[in-house]
Amino acid sequence: MKTITQPSATTLLTAEELLRLDAQGVRGELVRGVFCKMAPAGYRHGMVAMRLGARLVDHAEARGLGTVIGTDAGILLERNPDTVREPDIAFTSAERLPFGTEPNGYSGVVPDLVVEVASPNDRPSELAERAAMWLSFGVRLLWVVHPDAKTIEVHRAGTDRAAAQQVETLTLDDDLDGGSVLPGFTYSLSSLFAA
């Protein structure tokens, strides 16, 4: 077992090495083996993520739909080289991840829903890349939450590449809808972004 103290841009890491780094207090993701350091995203980011996450947990658990996780859980998307990404919130249906199944380390099961909450320093191109990446791995529904603008971009998996790139933008007058991924889930943006 090699000890990783500070990853470099030229060293490819594995998911297992990333877990060891996390235990040492080094937070990040892997993209095709390359370590990407992550920093705390701020108070508003955390508040919005927790508020939305709590609603999703309540809804999913009350109906036995599946499992909701928060950031730091990590999803192992591919091996050799490894990609481990951290959604801010993710829902995985009981069909994909049966109840009682708790992966050791990172989950290798692609979620049905991923929520990314934009940080103040996130560039639109980075958020678009993350959205496309999640959809390419089989995520069925993706919400990109913009706390500053008080909007949410809704990305739905399509049957072809063009359909997967269509985005609907919701504003304070709209309700977030879980569709077929989270049947019955609705949440008004005005409530989510309330001060």
Largest sheet: 6 strands, mixed
The averaged pLDDT comes out at 88
Helix content: 25-40%
- The gyration radius over C-alpha positions equals 17 Å
Total DSSP E strands: 12
How many angstroms does the end-to-end distance come to? 48 Å
| Order of helical and strand elements | HEEHEEEEEHEEHEEEH
Measured by DSSP, the beta-strand proportion falls in 25-35%
* Poorly predicted segments: 1-5
Sum up the overall morphology in one term: globular
* Structural class assignment: alpha+beta
How many helices in DSSP terms? 5
Question: How would you describe the overall organization of this protein?
Answer:
By secondary structure, the chain is an alpha+beta fold. It has helices at 15-23, 43-63, 124-136, 161-164, 189-192, and strands at 28-31, 34-37, 66-70, 75-78, 83-85, 89-93, 113-117, 141-146, 151-156, 167-170, 175-177, 186-188. It is 26% helix and 27% strand. Strand 7, helix 3 (124-136) and strand 8 (141-146) form a beta-alpha-beta unit. It is globular, with a radius of gyration of 17 Å. Mean pLDDT is 88; it is low at 1-5.
